[in-house]
Amino acid sequence: MSNTAIEGRANRPALRLVSTKELSRTDWLNVRKGGIGSSDAAAAVGLNPYQSQLELWMIKTGRDGCLPKIDPNDETSPMYWGSLLEPIVAAHYTKHSGNRVRRINAVLQHPDPDRSWMLANLDYTVVGAGDVQILECKTAGEFGARLWRDGVPEYVVLQVQHQLAVTNKIAADVCVLVCGQEIRFHRIERDDALINRLIELERKFWTYVETDTPPPADGSDSAAMALQCLYPHDSGNTLDLTQDREMSSVFADLVTIRDDIASREKVEAELKQRIQQRMGEASRARFETGDVSWKRSKDGLGLDVTTLIKEQPELLAAYPLVRPGSRRFLVNTKQ
């Protein structure tokens, strides 16, 4: 293929896969399962602090029935406030920058058939500006604000670079409202080297989806939750891995790490106790590099359920509560 043909193909605009104007949230989520969206990009390459590759794979392969679902109407959810405040953040961006913005109201798709699994939802496009074409609006609460301390978090950078890849645009502005009272503006320029690497890693993840092969767990809480959902029950059988050299090595490493953690926890407890012993009745102690506090918490009021059931056993039959069991992972070593 000639350089002209390649350049022409690369400069094509994104395809409008489906309009979202009349699309229900359920249908929108189903459309997203057909590819990797911009908000999926970081998780697809293992760099999302909130979601693992394994959890994302479960969603894309329709195994997400037991995964926790975000209620868009839950007023305690960051998603609820993010959606509510997004137009306000966009309006403030226009006021500050002078750039007009408008909604796309569509799921976009990469124009290259070989990358048709790359999808994107844009918050806004920037109208009439030569140096920037996309606006991404964010809100960060007290917990999330720490991720923005040194600029745009990596997972957001990957989200925006994915958008630039799908749309073939050159730059995006990220406008974030921090703790409901501080607006910050960041410009992200297109990085073709990063985009090429991102596409390579996303393609590898999409192969996991197409071949129905789970990606490796990464040690995160998200992966732990995904595994509990994938395999909630045990069969009672024993899997013989004594001849599996790779898994035997993994088991040996696990035992070594657990022994090291136990040893370090003992050292930690001893050091803590030495400080407590020196503090005596003091509430706080200062050191050259920091401080510690040792204060009594307020007394709490609880219910002695064991005694209550013993004295009034009929309550257990009248108000039963079945707690579903979960699989426990126990390690036993040969002595």
UniProtKB/TrEMBL annotation:
InterPro entries (alphabetical): Lambda-type_endonuclease (IPR017482), NF-kappa-B_Signaling_Reg (IPR051703), PDDEXK-like_dom_sf (IPR011604), Restrct_endonuc-II-like (IPR011335), YqaJ_viral_recombinase (IPR019080)
One term of GO molecular function: endonuclease activity
UniProt superkingdom: Bacteria
Listed transmembrane segments: none
Keyword Hydrolase found: yes
Key words of the record: Endonuclease, Hydrolase, Nuclease
Domain YqaJ viral recombinase: 27-169
Ion transport listed as a keyword: no
Pfam families, alphabetized: YqaJ
NCBIfam families: phage_rel_nuc
Protein name: Endonuclease
